[in-house]
Amino acid sequence: MADNAGVLKKVRVCRIVPSRYQVRKDFNKEYISGLAQSIVKDKLKTPIAVRRIAEPTPLPEGAAPGEEWQEILDGQCRWLAHKEAGLEEIEAIEYDVTEDEAREWVLIANVQRKDLNPIEEAEGYYNLNKFDPVKYTHEAIAAKFGKDRTYVTKSIQILKLPESIKDNVRQRTLTRSNAIELLSLPNDELKEKAVKEIIAKGLTEKNARQLIAKMLAGNTSEEAAKSINKPKKAAPGFQLIEGKDSIEAIGHFPKGTSKQDIMKSLDETYDSHQHDLEAKAKAAQEAKAAQEAAGQKIKDLETQLGQVEAKIEHMDAGVKSLEKAGKDTSGLKQELETLKQQQDGLKQELNKQRALLPKKASSAKAAKGKKAKKTKPAKDTVKPSDAQHQENLQKAVDAGLLGEKGKAVVEFKNKMAEIIKLQQDFKAAVSEEEKARLKAEIEKKKAEIEELKNMLNGEGRETMDEGRKDSGRQGVAKTAGDPSKGIATLPPPEAIKSLSQMGNKIALQQLKAAVENPNSERALQYEAQLKAMGLTKEQYIALLEEELR
């Protein structure tokens, strides 16, 4: 936009026209009236922004030709309030801007309004993107207005809905979330039927999602509505729904309710919500202050108790010494008894104050200490990061150290990760073609995982056993009751294979002993293979321990 500060001046109200780029058509009459009264009483606090234009064609009613004209860049509500109040002049800052700069200014000002409904917000994003697709990408718009890119994209998508449904969103009888869910229905007729059921039955967002899901499964809107858990009929008024980026107000009113009563109810709802937030914040602050005070009082009581107990101990020793010397200790004993009573009183008060502290704090503290003790690392254990572990695991597979079954375990994990990613993409997909493609891909991956499961559960074991017979390696089959014997006499791939079958810690300890014994022939074989993989013995042991978990 133009890089200038503008000129503050008084402009005649009748010589100002709205921007030709203003997409907003509806202005709240009650709000304009209230603003007019405020301006008459307290004057205008913020000047409007305008630019000089040529004489408009056609001229506004009652206007004479040949005079200076201004077009609004920002502040149309303030200008309308001046007109309603009958004021002749308004303070304005005149800017020297180009046609494109004026259009961009108005579009941005529209999106920055606080009272936007979801459709107006979506139209603002759409118009900016249409104005300059290179400058105002969805990512750029999201960054400018503090939103996520997906939020902007989904907002623009709801503009594809039929006009009647968009009117419901404008009037807030449908939420933005409802509108986004409706996009998944294949045609406008189904969308209209879903909206009819949602509004007629006052369905919550959760119930509306259930309704749409059942309709996608082939149920009619009536059948779907009957099969979901219906909420209690909402009382007249507004309900606030807090989202990630905003708060939406959903209204339920009898037919014939005036717009003035609806807006009054909306104001009261927001005021009540703000009051609740302030009350919660105040209660939290008071609770924190009370907790801090209780904590300080406990410290003071513990100090006093320690001092009294020290006195008791000192005085008790003195009484015993005097008694041995045969001296009168009745006065000291009386004083000692008083101190013990004081000690009991302090203990009772201390227990009382401790009971006032939240139990979660103490239990969390205990759990934290317990967890720290449990997860204390063993000496000389090298624990790789997740990324390093995955890299090491793949190296072991490539070197043949994990055998067929170990390789299947790694492949199983990779395919599970792929399914999770595909499911996320499926959820975010909009078109039916994309959803169908992703669904087919998910089913294919699931089938592959079933094959891997069968292998890991023992199917195909005969093939592996046959391979052992051919190479003369039958140690595991013969010594299954004694894992240490099987592992000590098998070469590396079979040792790890037997580990994945038996999965016990004794076997791992035996493998460690074989690997760490520098005089063992087996250790030399491992060392050569590990060197080729770029791993140390400690890293390899940590890798095995991770797999056994």
What does this structure look like?
- By secondary structure, this protein is an alpha/beta fold.
- The protein folds into four domains: 7-113, Conserved hypothetical protein from pyrococcus furiosus pfu- 392566-001, ParB domain, CATH 3.90.1530.10; 161-252, no CATH class; 275-356; 386-548, no CATH class.
- The chain has 24 helices and seven strands.
- It has helices at residues 29-42, 76-85, 99-111, 118-131, 138-145, 149-157, 163-170, 176-182, 188-200, 205-216, 221-227, 259-324, 330-356, 359-374, 386-398, 403-428, 432-456, 461-471, 475-478, 483-488, 492-502, 505-516, 521-533, 537-548, and strands at 7-12, 16-17, 48-53, 69-74, 89-94, 237-242, 247-252.
- Helix 1 (29-42) packs across helix 2 (76-85), helix 16 (403-428) runs antiparallel to helix 17 and helix 22 (505-516) packs antiparallel against helix 24 (537-548).
- The two termini are 61 Å apart.
Parts with pLDDT < 50 across at least 5 consecutive residues = 361-385, 459-504
Number of helices: 24
Structural class: alpha/beta
Strand content: 5-15%
Radius of gyration over all CA atoms, rounded: 38 Å
CA-CA gap between termini:
61 Å
Q: Which sheet architecture does the biggest sheet show?
A: 5 strands, mixed
| Strand segment count | 7
Specify the overall morphology.
extended
Count of individual domains = 4
Main sheet: which strands, in order across? 1-5-3-4-2
| Average pLDDT metric | 75
Helix content: 55-70%
In short:
The chain has 549 residues and is an alpha/beta fold.
